[in-house]
# Entry
Amino acid sequence: MSENGTNSRIFATRVAAALNEELGKTSAHVKIVAAWTGANERTVKNWFAGHYGPSGDHLVTLIKHCDAVLMAVLSMAGRENLLMSAKIEDLERRLAELIDLVRRR
# Structure
């Protein structure tokens, strides 16, 4: 397999892992992603299975909705600094939500 083919397989596998991590536990995961992206359900099932990955506008739309896909793409791009910033931002948001819940009691 060519290097590009190997990279495509790695990309598809990493996106599949991210999608399954964030949405794979729901019974409607395929329908949710199809609604987000406008892709047909068969295509989305192939993304979840890692047969191939989303391209272009579908990938951007997934990143808008799925933090795990964003993290996978940043990691594959070697942008760990942005990955860390995104994780810190997420932790700050979650902490603020928790503080808000505690204060309401």
